[in-house]
Design brief:
mainly alpha; three-stranded antiparallel sheet; globular; disordered N terminus
Length: 712
Amino acid sequence: MKILLGVFLAGILLTPTFDIDVAVPPGTPLEWDKDLHQPIPTGWRSRVPSTDRARDAAKPAPGGAPSPGAAAKRGMTVTSHPPIEFGVTNLYQYFGITTVDIVNHIKVEAPGGGLYKDGDVATGGGSGVEWKYMPEHPTELVWTGVAGCLRSILHYELISVPETVAYLCEVGETTLPGTRVVNSPVGEKLKLLVTPVPDQFPAIKSGSTPIESMFNRLVVVELTTGFPHALDPTFARRSLSLGERVYKQVLDATKSSHTLLARNGVAVLTNFRTPEAVDELRKFLRSNDPVVKYRALTGVGRLRDKAALPVLIQGLTSADDVWRAACAYTIGAIGDNSAVDELMKVAKQTNDIEYLWSLLPAIARLSSPRKDLEDFFTKMESAILSGGVVKEPPPPPKNMVPPKPEPPGTKLQVVIEMCRLGLAAAGNAGAREQIKTKFQQHGIDGFFVPNQILVCNVLGKMNDGRELLQTIVETAKNDRLAVQGLLDLQQLVAETEWLKKQATFNRAASVRAMALSELFDRGEDHFCPVAQKVIESYTGGSDGAQAFVVGTALQLMGKTSKREAMLDTMIAVAAKAHTSGMWARRDGENTLDIVKANIKICPPLLEIACIELGRLGSPNAVPTLLTILKSNATGGRAEAALALAACPSREAIEGIVAALDDPKDGWVRFCAYEALKKMSGQDHPCDWIFGNASSRSRAVAHYREWAGINAK
């Protein structure tokens, strides 16, 4: 239901207290994505583990990006952007909304999703991967759009309209309902950039082989049954686990005329770290589809693709205020100091405070002790303080004044603080002392919320900033800040004993997992005792945060010389994870009533435990793996089939062969085929995922014949 802004605000003002607040998260809006984007999956989940634990060699990545080997070593924790928060998330609290009657103020309607066509047509007739189209709009993404529009009214002094629009455009179609219920500057811009989900299925190409046709269908199905920014660890999980084997299909998706398929294809393309994939991603910076363009922009920023800089520098002078702000932010994220002069040149020529909001942090992030950078920030701060240099945006009309606004001029104070932080990043001793004093007196809350991520970045450039960053990691109430503090600590090298403490006791699961990764880099003597305690402490249950940390520890422990000694413990973890339902999934009713929206997000602990048992290749793991494979679990069974192939025995072979006829899960059938192909050396391809039983019968018969001879 649409409501006018005046009516909406009148409803707020008539309530007895100032009962609506939409909290602004730390950092500028373009940094919110680090909370919502999926972690980059490693590519092992569809592969048969080798008993010799051979792994992919790390290859140089383009533009200074983390190498594929490094990503695999890190396991589930990707240092370029922390993973989603696992556990039970109440979205009413997630968005910092402080009124229980917000649903009386805002009524949001979104497409309901569900099967658009007959199920047999959608899946190809073979109980494979269900194709739900149109996909249901996840509650958290719908409310992300609502919150973005609200912030531009309630907290207009603490947000950047261009950055907010850029971020919501990247999130895509699910933010449109918010533009219909809250009339705001953000919403008006967003409606010009984003088109709704198409109401028709995309076409699927046939392939030259049954496997190619199967992959073609799989990628299209997975990319059009969900949204990449959702709190859902299973989005496109099968396609992502296939890695390079479906690169062609993903690339084809990015060029589809079906907008949902193309947009989600670009989001998935950012997970491929080859030079060819990055080249393709760079081309999308010139796309006519804004959602595609902003997703590609985030991708090149994460990959730190220096080859994208010419396009981004050109974007700094664009007439499009949203694009130029996003380009400035991304240049800072890439981290190439050669671009700082171009940023300073543009900053000196603008009086647009919204643009300086993006330019100044980018310059600060690229700053190093340089006299010209000190002079720049000194003059910029002085000019802003003197007045008349910066053109502030007009305040909202009087009938739109929120009940609890920040004082007029707050946005100017935020920009002045950016200058002080930039001056400190450039090496100014006085500015550095001021920052330390403010932090010691007031903590991170002494800084404006939009600058708090930048505070961490600047402290990481200060030789004496380690203690303050450690304080942020230990005490930050917002997990994003704690994670950023640990990321910036890498430049200053945290004390090993302190890292051990964080790996064991920190409140944030992401921090604990990242600390384990840091300890792993420092050697087995530091890592193994801590990781062993973390793994042994797993008691099962529904604590997704604990399961995430245990999964990270298992992945890293599997790369050490202590792995065989942990066999019994790993078997126990797999059994407990299976009993507790700790496989990758999202549970909970997708209700738009945000007060009731509780979402349970589970990490893939069971999948990881199965694969690590396969890497050990011990026959002792076979009973547990068979129990998992034969169960009704919706996750972990495919990985159990793959792991059993590395533990050859009569029982393992019989279990895998039986899985070729699994009546419910085509992905389990495909992974069983992959396992038998390795074990037997025979390849009998067919459409294992979507094909019906009769189309698979000949291939199944061949493997049964082989098993009858060899399963002894």
